[in-house]
Design brief:
The chain has a 3-stranded mixed beta sheet, with no helix packed on it. A 3-stranded antiparallel beta sheet has the order 4-5-6, with no helix packed on it. The chain has one domain (3-27, 36-71). It is mainly β. The protein has strands spanning 3-4, 42-44, 47-49, 54-57, 60-65, 68-71.
């Protein structure tokens, strides 16, 4: 898998998570930070993204942080 680093680039639009592919979790609670690694890449439908990268999913804009996706508003 190629890694995508898009912190300074346009936020890519992605399809909804496909449960048949590898995906990192989407976190909704600040307490989830304790259960995730201090640093890490995120995966969306088998595509690897660097920590700090953003994607535009059907549910909104997400940022890769500590191996998990975090909601960051709308696209």
């Amino acid at each position: 898998m190629d890694k995508v680093t898009n912190m300074a680039e346009e936020t890519p639009n992605v399809e909804a998570q496909d449960p048949s592919k590898q995906n990192s979790p989407i976190e909704l609670s600040p307490y989830a930070v304790e259960s995730t690694p201090l640093e890490g890449e995120c995966v969306w439908n088998g595509q690897v993204y660097s920590s700090g990268a953003f994607i535009c999913s059907p549910s909104g804009r997400l940022m890769c942080n500590r191996g998990s996706w975090w909601p960051e508003g709308s696209c």
